Description:
This protein is α+β, with helices and mostly antiparallel strands. It has 15 helices and 22 strands. Helix content is about 35%, strand content about 30%.
Amino acid sequence: MSIQKLLIANRGEIAVRIIRAAREQGIATVQVHSAADADSLAVQLADDAVEIGPAPAAKSYLNVDAILAAAQRSGADALHPGYGFLAENAAFADRVAAAGMIFVGPSGDTIRLMGDKVAARKVAMEAGVPTVPGSDGLVADLEAAKAAVADIGFPAMIKAAAGGGGRGIRIAQDMAEFERLFPQASAEAQAAFGDGALYIEKVIERARHVEVQVLGDGERVIHCFERECSLQRRRQKVWEEAPSAALSQDVRLALCESAVKLSASVRYSGAGTLEYLYDDATGAFYFIEMNTRIQVEHPVTEWITGIDLVGEMLRIAGGAPLRFRQDEITLRGHAIQVRLNAEDPARNFLPGPGTISDLRLPGGPGVRFDSLLYSGCSIPPFYDSLLGKLIVWGEDRLHAIDRMKSALAELEIAGIATTAPLFRALVDEESVREGNVHTRWLEHWLETNAAKLA
């Protein structure tokens, strides 16, 4: 039951990444797109393309009926949702299956169980995996949320049950701020994921964000080690690396085994990521959520393990068993990824859509660039500002940082402002080079280092 024709229900760099993985397996591709993306790189690279609506995502990339109609008209027998948009929408996965197609990812029932952040917390607790203190499930309204936060105290995090990528999240320091931010988080979650349901978690100060990549075929689950994504701005990851330099081998083993145990308990199928907070001071880790899809930062795992994660997703979805045993997965070297967004760090990260007038990409050993860019392409204002990801590999962490510095020096994206100046500053920052960071470190650093971002 291998896949013959794959429809990509997404856009940008992940659409390009999926097309390339499909092509290597001889799978024909169909790229759906909005009117604003008619000239996108993904549309140019796919074997076929279908316009599904106007620029607003709600009328195109979130339009289930239009996507399914495009799949049926094009003869696709499978659909890859990428990340964001409908990737963790259980009802969408059900609709794809009901239409007789393969959804490249877990079943709708598994997404309900693990993609729903509240349900996943419950599964983790039942499996004996520690979780962050928080509300007992979804909070029905603001009054219920206030009752929950009264029990755990401030600072408190308001989180979207269907969230991902840092969207639908707010941190409140007191009750007045909590009351103001609660409806904002719900509205953002509704707009981004079509579901405004929220839950509450205690904020753990100075925690690191560590996550474990898993692969499963419904029968077996393996891990592909961990990534650290502690450098975040407004809860959006900007710099990711693998492995985490903070973990001892014993903690790494315990963390990864907990992820496999949790995933195996739901007979997970496909690629998934289990996210944790890690406390340097105590060595304790807490499960926070599972993403039942491919992650933006998957390339760093691919580089340290040599496994094509998107390719494995396609094989598993096509009915093949997992090709690897756990003892065959080895960790080699260190990889770092930085996210290049169409934002101006010198102007408080003001988004800046426009036209790419010139493009010079870095290369050489250990350098990879995944993007939606080509010279002359237009960056529309309607979507996520991610332009591309610069990924490097080194024999160890400092080698990787130095290689990232060299690659950033070669990179030129002309015509719009990008976040490249942020990373050119960070590669020389002592705390970054020493790995002495946490999830709130970058916000504090930006307050006193704005002059370095011009």
